[in-house]
Amino acid sequence: MAIPILTAPDPRLKAVSKDVETVDGEIRKLAADMADSMYAAEGIGLAAIQIGVAKRVIVIDLDQKDGKKNPKTFINPKILWASEEMATFEEGCLSVPEIWDDVERPARIRAEYLDLDGKRVELEADGLLATCLQHEMDHLEGVLFIDHLSRLKRSMALKKLNKAKKLAV
Ligand SMILES: [Zn+2]
After folding, report:
1. Which of 26, 124, 136, 141 is catalytic?
2. In the sheet where 72-82 sits, what is the strand order?
3. CA 138 – CA 40 distance, rounded (Å)
4. How confident is the model over 85-128, as pLDDT tens digits?
5. Helix H or strand E segment including 39
6. How remote is the CA of residue 90 from the centroid of ligand 1, in Å?
């Protein structure tokens, strides 16, 4: 079931999410709702806090080109290693609509997480997946991509966001 996505400056987006203790039916239902919400909003990634649930669950699907859905769920993800080499991507966020800006992050990471069966998985990622994972893991710490921008750029982004909201009402 698609659930409305919170947008900045909603204070819930600043919450630090809690570890999932048991990967059970409730978590699998949450992951399914997150995927529905992500597809409904035409996004490629979503963290649980973006639908108001402060649990360390992320859903990502970078490969939706042919209309096939293949959401991947990352539970309690942790970065084990990050490259010194950095990469810059123009990022956007379902919780910061209509704002896009360059963010620099480690180009490659190694991460561990639990899958939907509660099994521990290790993964090396680069390119868009590395960026997307780091962007979504920031959400688990209450950090938005605009928090990585300079103060000036961030305040410009928030102003633009406020204006867009007013126009939408
Ligand atoms: Zn985001």
Report:
1. 136
2. 45-47, 57-60, 72-82, 108-114, 120-126
3. 22
4. 999 999 999 999 989 999 999 999 999 999 999 999 999 999 99
5. helix 25-40
6. 12
